[in-house]
């Protein structure tokens, strides 16, 4: 069952509706929810909390009752700040992860490299620094990587050019379409 109350003007904190509905998909995006992300939301296969005002996330991601979203997690366009938590190992079946348009700072979490099934990683428009961790190389299913509008530095890792697939990579304000072949990286317009 899917619960979808997106695109309303609901405010405040989210009441505990986990005992009311047996659901695998929870869509709460585009509302005015705020405060901490409730722990009861951690067990959905698909969880969309985008475009709200959440500001506290650490107990949601890491802790005794850590998140176990299995496929799709979108927490973009919120007020989350601080370092991106380094506790992604328990989410190894995650396919889609969007943490864009927040105020995360520090380095990209090295444990994101344990997301072996990840196809889409969007970290756009945060305040992330340094470079792309080598561990992201382990995300062999990755076809979309958006790191644009951050404060990253250094060079693009060589391993990005060794994937055999078409991928959309964004490092700046323009999208770049690349064709990955056995012979390396080819630019496509």
Describe, in short, the structure shown.
The protein has one helix at 58-61; strands at residues 2-4, 11-12, 25-27, 32-36, 46-48, 53-56, 72-74, 81-83, 96-98, 103-106, 120-122, 127-130, 144-146, 151-152, 166-170, 176-181, 184-188. By secondary structure, it is mostly beta strands. The chain is globular and about 45 Å long.
Characterization of this structure:
InterPro entries: Leu-rich_rpt (IPR001611), LRR_dom_sf (IPR032675). It is found in: Cell membrane. It comes from Vigna mungo. It holds the Pfam family LRR_1. With 189 residues, this protein is mainly β. It has a single domain (2-188), classed as Ribonuclease Inhibitor (Leucine-rich repeat, LRR (right-handed beta-alpha superhelix), Alpha-Beta Horseshoe), CATH 3.80.10.10. The protein has one helix and 17 strands. The chain has one helix at residues 58-61, and strands spanning 2-4, 11-12, 25-27, 32-36, 46-48, 53-56, 72-74, 81-83, 96-98, 103-106, 120-122, 127-130, 144-146, 151-152, 166-170, 176-181, 184-188. The chain has a ten-stranded mixed β-sheet, with no helix packed on it. Strands 8-10-12-14 form a four-stranded parallel β-sheet, with no helix packed on it. Strand 16 (176-181) and strand 17 form a beta hairpin. The longest helix is centred in the N-terminal third of the chain and has 4 residues, at 58-61. It is globular and about 45 Å long. The termini are far apart.
